[in-house]
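Human: Respectfully, please carefully check these tokens:
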Amino acid sequence: PHECIFHYKGWPSTGLPPAEDDPKPGLWAIRCGAYKAHYVTMCSQMQRFGDSRCSSHRAADEDHVDKDPDYYTLSSAPIIQDPPLLYNVEHDLAEMYPLDPKSSEYLFVMATMQRAKKMHEATLTPVPNMNAKGSDPSTAICCDKDSQSKYPQHPPCTCNPENFDVFVCKPVYADQKQAEKEQVVV
């Protein structure tokens, strides 16, 4: 298990590891235990409902992960959070109430996260930005380019079709009668 999970989106404009003042750092968030820190945020759906935390600038093409033009019109440009937004996600699942950056809890947790971030960044090795290559199939990383003919019900480049049809858990029934009807013991 990992002590921290690092959430990336995009490529640092200054390369790896990114410079402290990189306007596009690549690393957007870190989750360590009960806490999640956001270094960069971007709004999509919520700004049309009046979310004032969103940037009024629209996102650039390179900041989108999909090619949905409707999504483009809703997305704001990335917002560098300085100081980072910090949430206790065990108490605030929706990440609506960031901790006060002046609080002792914030200062202690962010010091721990900054150490984890520095240690993580020291392990990074520069690699080609595969997202920047676009959707050209000839540049795709694919373990089986013929998988679509073998497994037409699964996405292209399926390596492990057995992972798509895995039984996860029994259905949850609201009452005992429905469970008995399905001949399931609850």
